[in-house]
């Protein structure tokens, strides 16, 4: 389990299913699941079965995002774990409506990145997404990942051809990225109304693709 100021991460389990389902199957369910490999689910029973199938997985390794109320409001996954080469990918990012565009959503990525580099000692942290998924590509840049290009016709997802945009963060880049995350997440970076004083993109020095 990884504890932050706004969220904590713990291994995804069926105990999280009810809150996770509620957070991801509201009016915006189609947009939440559009670029993911599965979902949305027609009912809670099918969703719970999907969570149960992932509960004991080791690769992909899913994490539930728990907010300060104690509810599971999202999940994200470590996958394609290449220990000999110390390379790992973050994927399956499923942020429910209550988590989207919050400080907690950024902190969730930071907590995993810190684990990957500081505890596991990995060299390369990858982020991949459908090249049509503009919000995911913008998020990768804001979070300090570097754009590396597109793998054309990389896979078929939900019956459609997918070009995959690749991003990565390296261990040599992590100290500066960690400092940017921690500066942005610090309470002093937010005014009394919760508005950020410095943007994470600016702190990261993110540029265009």
Oligomer: single chain
Q: Can you tell me the overall shape? A: globular
CATH class: Alpha Beta
Named CATH topology: Aminopeptidase
Structure description:
- Helices cover 32% and strands 30% of the residues.
- It has helices at residues 17-24, 29-33, 44-54, 103-119, 134-142, 174-185, 200-204, and strands at residues 2-3, 8-11, 61-66, 72-82, 87-95, 124-130, 146-157, 160-170.
- The longest helix has 17 residues, at 103-119.
- It has an eight-stranded mixed beta sheet with strand order 1-2-3-4-5-6-8-7, with helices on both faces.
- With 209 residues, it is α+β, with helices and mostly antiparallel strands.
In short:
This protein is of the alpha+beta class and 209 residues long. Helices cover 32% and strands 30% of the residues.
Q: Any key phrases for this structure?
A:
209 residues, Aminopeptidase, alpha+beta, globular, single chain
What layout of secondary structure does this protein have?
Layout: E1 2-3, E2 8-11, H1 17-24, H2 29-33, H3 44-54, E3 61-66, E4 72-82, E5 87-95, H4 103-119, E6 124-130, H5 134-142, E7 146-157, E8 160-170, H6 174-185, H7 200-204
Parallel strand pairs: 5-6
Antiparallel strand pairs: 1-2, 2-3, 3-4, 4-5, 6-8, 7-8
Helix pairs in contact: 4-6
